[in-house]
Amino acid sequence: MRTSRSLRARLTALVTGAATAAAAALLTLGAAPAQAAGTPLRDLAAAKGKVMGTAVTGSKLTGTYGEIASREFNALTPGNAMKWGSVEPTRGNFDWAEADRIVTFAEAHGQQLRGHTLVWHSQNPSWLTNGSWTSAELGQLMKDHIALEVGRYKGRLATWDVVNEPFNEDGTYRQTLWYNGLGADYIAQALTAARAADPSAKLYINDYNVEGVNAKSTALYNLVKSLKERGVPIDGVGLQAHLILGQVPSTMQQNIQRFADLGVDVAITELDIRMQLPADSAKLTRQAADYKAVMNACLAVSRCVGVTVWGFTDSDSWIPDTFPGQGAATPYDENYAPKPAYHAIAEALGGTTTPPPTGACTATYSVTSQWNTGFTGQVRIACSGAALSSWKVGWTFGAGQRITQAWNAGCTQSGAAVTCSNASYNGTVPDGGSVTFGFNGSWSGSNPVPTVSLG
Ligand code: 9MR
What we know:
Elements: E1 11-15, H1 21-26, E2 31-33, H2 41-47, E3 51-56, H3 63-72, E4 75-78, H4 84-87, H5 97-108, E5 112-119, H6 126-129, H7 135-152, E6 159-164, H8 177-182, H9 186-197, E7 202-207, H10 215-230, E8 236-239, E9 242-244, H11 252-261, E10 265-276, H12 281-299, E11 304-309, H13 319-322, E12 326-327, H14 340-348, E13 360-370, E14 374-384, E15 392-396, E16 402-407, E17 409-414, E18 417-422, E19 434-442, E20 452-454
Parallel strand pairs: 3-4, 3-11, 4-5, 5-6, 6-7, 7-8, 8-10, 9-10, 10-11
Antiparallel strand pairs: 1-2, 1-13, 10-12, 13-14, 14-19, 15-18, 15-20, 16-19, 17-18
Helix pairs in contact: 7-9, 11-12, 12-14
The structure holds ligand 9MR.
């Protein structure tokens, strides 16, 4: 089942070839679909037998966020909801609400689920990290946790990241609660417990900075090899791929292939590509090429099952909090407009999207929420390879809607025709930048999205 399409309809008016503010201000051209021309990523991926996933935040799975998550992706990973600290904040007291919500959403939309993550050094509850445990107690806690959480979703999750981030950069084992208490064998014990709890789930070890051939990925390779030789259940390796603009490892495909040759699957599990802010059209173009390179590395290896992005919108990305001054790492901007990276992913998957021409400013109308007789909408004006010093957008409502209130723009309505102009403080839209204004309106019967022109 797919969610209603009414909220996701959005139209873009292209001011083509508007290299200057003056030219852009003079032109009022007809609308072209922003992304309707493109097949959703999930359908493109499915046609190739691949996963195209995203990490999600359960509480956000409504409105435009939920629309995109369900329309574009055939797999979901809870970004935080299944971590130990989330599900058992105090010992013996469980909170499955967000995890359950994501699982239910995914099932309603025919999406695979990737459980994340069971045994990690981070985001553990304080009762666990602050406790003093014997080795036997720690081993039992770990196994009980795995049995409980994997068992809860038995048969419903395609995959589990059983062990997360076990290695240091030099390929030695990370000194964690688990390693210090149980030795390196904690990994085999965790995998064995997960297999017992859900024999049908694919079991992965997941780590970062293991995308190319290096000391860390070689340690992971040697571990997987020895686990396979010992008969420990291991089905795949997750290469997180938290990458930096312009730094996709050149050995990525070769690295994926060597794991595949060991007889395990490979997944790109947490892809994002961060840049120094502000973003501009040159950086976004480079980012698109980087996204395509990662997609192509996976697509070239049959045992690479697919790619998951670590959040699909810049408004739901961990990067700005962790790397101050950096961001714009995901395929959609913070207003849910697809970036060049989105189009690059689609193209790598065999799609034929038509990205906005370079040297254009676009206006995108969307309904952000809707109730009985009212709605809230927004229009986003974005420039790439062009800029504006003032703007005016117009549209004609098709079903009697009326604007009741607007903010960040001056709007007038005459009959069905609406005209909105910039406020005194937001007329400038720089190259690579955007401005958004919002409004409330009334509707009855239907609330179709109008064609917007930017002039
Ligand atoms: O996206 C997650 C973010 O919201 C959390 O604050 C953070 C805490 O470490 O974890 C993020 O996800 C991580 C993932 O679980 C494992 N690989 C690295 C990810 C980014 O930190």
